[in-house]
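# nightly structure sweep
# worker-07 picked up a monomer target from the shared queue
# config: single-sequence mode, recycle default, output format = structure tokens
# input follows
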Amino acid sequence: MFERILSLFSGSEFHTDLPAADACTALGALMVRAAKADHAYLFEEVEQIDRVLAKLYDLNPVEATKMRAQCELLEEEMPETEGLAGILHDAIGVTEREAAVAALWSVVFVDGVEHEEEDELLHAVEAALGVSPADAKRLHDTEMAKRPVKKARLTPAAREPDRCYARSADDQEAD
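# output follows
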């Protein structure tokens, strides 16, 4: 902490070391990436990541929050989703890979909307983890059944890079 305070006065940038890229932090980083895939990192998603980390690794809420913060750092620094998934693939068995995919879908669905970018990201992770399409669909459908989720329909303007999603007129009328 003292170094951080000194860095404010010296003009040098304080740097936090990245966590080790092990299976636990790789899964957490993938959950963060999945939550951010729709360009909105919502409080509900943060809470869900914390709950999943606490359950998977027997952590109390403070430990889970600290672990998520480390996973957020790793997610920012690791450009390749396949690299994160590869760490998991090499470290865990088939059953744990399926549990990881289920955890990822639980984060995606917590906001009640399934976005195209989230689907694409998770399908890439499923393939990198070696989860079969049939098993992946089963895991998707099981997690989706736990909460009401609707597919996001994007307007043409929302498909442009670096734009937030705009809901279509059909979605607005449904509300």
